[in-house]
Amino acid sequence: MNVPLPKYVERGPIHDVAWIPLKFFTDPRGWLVELFRNDLVPPAFHPVMAYVSMTKPGVARGPHEHVDQADYFCFTGPSTFRVCLWDARKTSPTFGQKEVREVGEGEPFALIVPSGVVHGYKNVGDKDGWVFNAANRLYAGWLKQEPVDEIRHEKDPNSPYQID
Known about the structure:
Elements: E1 10-11, E2 18-21, E3 24-27, E4 30-33, E5 51-55, E6 60-65, E7 71-77, E8 80-87, E9 98-104, E10 109-113, E11 117-123, E12 129-133, E13 151-152
Antiparallel strand pairs: 1-2, 2-10, 3-4, 5-12, 6-11, 6-13, 7-10, 7-12, 8-9, 8-11
GO molecular function: dTDP-4-dehydrorhamnose 3,5-epimerase activity
Catalytic activity: dTDP-4-dehydro-6-deoxy-alpha-D-glucose = dTDP-4-dehydro-beta-L-rhamnose
Pfam families: dTDP_sugar_isom (PF00908)
């Protein structure tokens, strides 16, 4: 991701991870938040599909990683999520590094997770929380006819990737 990013995009301690602060625009009708803009995300990470998930309090999703796919998550609330990232890319300058951040209702962020970075999150708030994801690859390929690009770690009790 060695392309210029706007000043307010935060590069994570893990190489190629980017955190994009999300801003809510409110008025008497409610609010609006821009989840994705072409000018903030390098073309290699532009989405080809999107979904929204709801995670109950105390529940974790992941950790897992992708061989080819990158994820573009948006944590906007209405709860708080603890996001854990591990750099599993042997050729990365931050190989083996871990990053943990709490985001969501009080700290809304978008997050670019490149392939090879193990990732997972847990709803650490007290209400159901929504997460938006816009991946740069189709889940299970064109018309869902290919193997799913996931290496799952959450069911391995000996995995070094444990969500705190």
